[in-house]
Design brief:
It contains 14 helices and 31 strands. By secondary structure, it is an alpha+beta fold. It folds into four domains: 16-209, Nucleotidyltransferase, domain 5; 217-271 and 365-426, 2-Layer Sandwich (Nucleotidyltransferase, domain 5), CATH 3.30.420.40; 274-351; 436-606, no CATH class. It starts with 15 loop residues before the first strand and ends in a 7-residue tail after the last strand.
Length: 613
């Protein structure tokens, strides 16, 4: 194993605090770094939470919130697991919110199927996922404040000096896009982590769980071949809800003082995390205990399986036991004796098989589509602590010549620690586009082309007398393309209007992505989706709107021209919209030429709500 050189001292003018929130499906963690001018920043974790002694482990808390009948928060995290809390919740009619992170997912992305939807607990009535996320963020911030003020020398003064200017890093699954980032930003604003201003929004950044895990792996040692020869690596972040798959290689032209990595394949996200092993166990138990008096205890038995049997499972040839009751609990017909349910190891192995098969296939897909050869697989995340998962993946991938590494450090802190490293070190400078991105435009009519003649019914003539066909997909960024963070994608636009069309100071340009399998998508009415849910009647194709770019046109010069039919004049504005896809969050600008001067201005990106959810 090899390590990256120590990072440089912080060169900022004043002390800063960076907090990374890893809000997981089942468990959440916080990492942080105090940045003092002239000192090398260190990554630290919050290792003590309220009521922490009531759950195992010290680095994470359950992602759970209890609300009372008025919608007020009553218990969060480890506090929601303390002794007697369930009885109090039942007596006072509290409602539990768990797995709420998964409600952010898109109906068009990973986990869109009805089977996954049915397994996700519903949100409490009158609560949105943004409101619940905000409540949880408020709690995490209070935990960070308490820990830092109590464990650091002069902790109260330290917190007071930074609390109004904290930089936050929020991690999210690989499969989430701008809409989900926008919702998380709204939650952060609602939680008052940041104000809704330009300066406030600049203090919040996002990173995918895959990229955060890469940074964690770099800090905790990579295979020497990955560092010294640039051999490709697949990062498998096996979490509670999702399995995030990402591939990278070291940029061998980078220097020792400024090491950089590049993404080499389109990242993946699958809803096959450890909670779905529990759901597989639950389904088995519902059938197995159907005729037993203990069928009503399945929820309790599944929780016991999750806490003890699942993490200890190693050998499919050995019988497995779920201890859930007392010596008075017996049912020989279903192998329950003295409060223990005996299961065949082969049956338990089947609970793990879907995620194992999913990961193995995803890794092979990465190898086939990667821009460089892949030699190593690095397994991190809470689910990675399963020895059975590690052994089975090793056996499945060894024939392909892949070595599998599980870092010795706390793999369940990979995302939050890695998110801080992302902020400090920023190793990834090149990323890969997941889809083909573009806009719909009106193409010049060319009668010699078959697809134009087939759409002659939509033909129209513009002010300049040019015949056009609408709804052609103009690709700005092809799928599976490596792009640097500095790469700009320009698209030229011309806005036409005359006296009968009111001029608007805001031009709205829609950015679309193509999610289908056609190599060169061209027309909006081609490639109808066969897998979208029936209620998605508003979007019957594999083209989905990513966002709208709002451009202020007040400074763009007007050109007056005469209409081709001689009926008067019209005005035209010509400008470029610049999109920067290579960052962890999409950025946009507008540019135009005013005589001999090039002018560039910022543009606003607006994400529509996920109407299919």
């Amino acid at each position: 194993m090899a390590s990256i050189p120590i990072r440089a001292p912080f060169d900022g003018p004043r002390r800063k605090l960076v907090l990374a929130f890893d809000i997981g499906t089942t468990f959440s963690g916080i990492s942080y770094s105090v940045l003092d001018p002239g000192r090398v920043p260190e990554i630290k974790g919050i290792t003590k939470f309220p009521a922490q002694d009531h759950i195992s482990g010290a680095s994470k808390i359950p992602t759970i919130i209890y609300y009372d009948r008025n919608g007020d928060v009553r218990a969060v995290g480890a506090e929601a697991m303390r002794d007697g809390i369930q009885d109090q919740a039942e007596d006072e009619q509290w409602v539990k919110a768990e797995w709420f992170k998964l409600h952010l997912r898109s109906r068009l992305g990973p986990g869109a199927g009805r089977e996954i939807t049915a397994k996700i607990p519903p949100l409490p009535l009158n609560k949105t996922v943004i409101e619940i996320l905000a409540d949880f963020m408020v709690y995490l911030l209070s935990c960070a404040s308490k820990y830092i003020t109590e464990t650091h020398a002069n902790g109260v003064d330290l917190w007071t000096s930074v609390k109004d200017q904290i930089d936050f890093v929020l991690s999210h699954p690989n499969g989430w896009e701008g809409t989900q980032q926008s919702q998380m930003r709204s939650a952060a604003i609602l939680a008052r982590l940041i104000p809704d201003t330009s300066a406030g929004n600049a203090r919040l950044s996002f990173v995918t769980e895959g990229e955060a895990s890469l940074h964690f792996a770099i800090q905790n040692g990579l295979p020497s071949g990955a560092l010294n020869r640039g051999e490709g690596i697949v990062i498998v972040d096996a979490g509670g809800g999702t399995i995030d798959i990402s591939s990278y290689s070291k940029n061998m032209t980078s220097t020792a003082a400024k090491v950089s990595f590049e993404e080499i394949a389109t990242s993946q996200c699958h809803f096959q995390g450890s909670v779905f092993v529990n759901e597989n166990a639950r389904s088995f138990l519902q059938s197995y205990l159907a005729d037993s008096p203990y069928v009503d205890d399945i929820d309790h038995i599944t929780r016991c399986f999750d806490k003890t049997t699942k993490p200890r499972f190693r050998d499919a040839k050995e019988p497995q036991y779920i201890k859930f009751g007392s010596i008075r609990d017996n049912d020989a017909s279903v192998n329950i004796r003295s409060g223990q349910l005996k299961l065949q190891g082969a049956d338990v192995a089947l609970f793990f098989q879907p995620p194992i098969s999913c990961i193995a296939k995803a890794v092979q897909d990465q190898r086939q589509t990667a821009h460089k050869n892949i030699h190593h697989v690095i397994l991190v995340g809470g689910f990675a602590a399963s020895d059975y998962l590690l052994v089975q993946l090793t056996e499945a991938l060894r024939p392909a010549g892949l070595s599998i590494v599980r870092p010795e450090s706390h793999v369940n802190k990979a995302v939050s620690d890695g998110a801080i490293s992302f902020y400090l070190d920023h190793f990834v400078r090149t990323r890969v586009s997941k889809f083909a991105y573009g806009t719909f435009c009106d193409d010049w009519y060319r009668p010699e082309e078959n697809d134009h003649r087939a759409r002659v019914a939509t033909l129209y003539t513009d002010f300049a007398g040019t015949k056009r066909i609408p709804d052609r997909f103009d690709i700005i960024l092809p799928k599976n393309t490596q792009i640097s963070e500095q790469k700009e994608f320009r698209n030229s636009f011309s806005e036409y209007f005359d006296e009968s069309h009111r001029f608007s100071d805001i031009y709205k340009s829609e950015v679309w992505c193509y999610r289908g399998l056609v190599t060169q998508p061209k027309w909006k009415d081609v490639d109808r989706s066969k897998y979208l849910p029936s209620f998605a009647y508003l979007m019957a194709y594999n083209y989905t709107k990513l966002c709208t770019v709002d451009v202020k046109l007040s400074g763009v010069p007007l050109t007056q021209l005469r209409k081709a039919d001689g009926s008067g004049t019209y005005h035209v504005m010509t400008f470029d919209i610049i999109l920067i896809f290579g960052l962890t969050e999409l950025k946009a600008q507008v540019a135009w030429q005013d005589k001999t001067v090039s002018i560039t201005s910022s543009a606003k990106i607006v994400y529509d709500p996920d109407i299919y959810y």
